Amino acid sequence: MNEVPMTPTTEIAARAEAYREHYAAVRDEIRKVIVGQEEVIDGVLTSVFAGGHVLLEGVPGLGKTLLVRTLARVLHLKFSRIQFTPDLMPADITGTNIVTESPSGGRQFLFQPGPIFANVVLADEINRATPKTQSALLEAMQEQSVTVAREVRRLEEPFFVLATQNPIEQEGTYPLPEAQVDRFFFKLLVGPPCLEELDAIIDRTTGTEEPELRVILDGPALLEMRALCRAVPIAPHVKEWALKIVMATHPDSELAPPQVKRFVRYGSSPRGAQALVLAAKTRALLDGRYNVSFDDIRRSALPALRHRVLLNFEGLAEGVQPDDLVQEILESLSPAGDGEIG
Known about the structure:
With 342 residues, the chain is α/β, with parallel strands linked by helices. It has helices at 8-31, 38-50, 64-74, 91-94, 131-134, 136-143, 178-181, 195-205, 219-230, 236-247, 258-263, 270-286, 294-305, 313-318, 322-332; strands at 53-57, 79-83, 95-101, 107-113, 120-124, 145-148, 151-154, 160-165, 184-189, 264-266, 310-311. It has a five-stranded parallel β-sheet. A two-stranded antiparallel sheet has the order 3-4. Strands 6-7 form a two-stranded antiparallel sheet.
């Protein structure tokens, strides 16, 4: 039997199907270790497949570190963990030049790479280090490179920073600078398990059996999937709605609802729009569609924008939640049924 030649359309369909299969396989492997936290797992995978960094916020003991370790194992990527403490220095992250003896008996400078030289970097309790040390991640997260002794060193792709922070224990912590928070693709809130999930966690962690994890993807395959995600088209009116959502986070915008004008100091940067569109493209592929829908944008809005809506003093004093403000923006700019922006 003669083989049917693969046309561009069938090739894209085959790649999209492989995309969904790999995503589902990675998610299933993570579920062998992590109980519940479905939204967090999907959010992390969406960010990784789109090429973005993730900020995980939750109290200790909820499996944030375990989730990142498991992800690195399933993706067969080099993993590095950095425990952020007040005495951590930038060189402890990026690396430094050390003096060594050369074979001829002389001395030479040799670069000793830091833990940032990995594919998956876990920045554990990132808000416990000083701003000077936190800023060591800025160049790496944006440019995928580090500069040591005036020499720029590229990081191996794919490269992801997955950072954790505790929202309740604030003694001895340093809030992340706005410039660094903005570099995170998603901010995901990790909540406590329900009774059934806690029961399953106890069964898994106090027994004798350990789950066997399969390697699903490697670095090059993940980069191919990222390229496919970026190739998904988005209609002009859907993109316009996404951009209007981002514009409405600014209190001086005519699109901002009253609560935003009252409680917000600064709104989202263009990175928020980039995260919103890329996440929506990923969700479209996972749903078997080759174009972005309004619902894809809506489902991506909270994790993409909640950390980019900065409250003013009144908003902080009133205990306003950024999630509520983003929801109000979505409701005030809900798209009309005919596809036009309302």
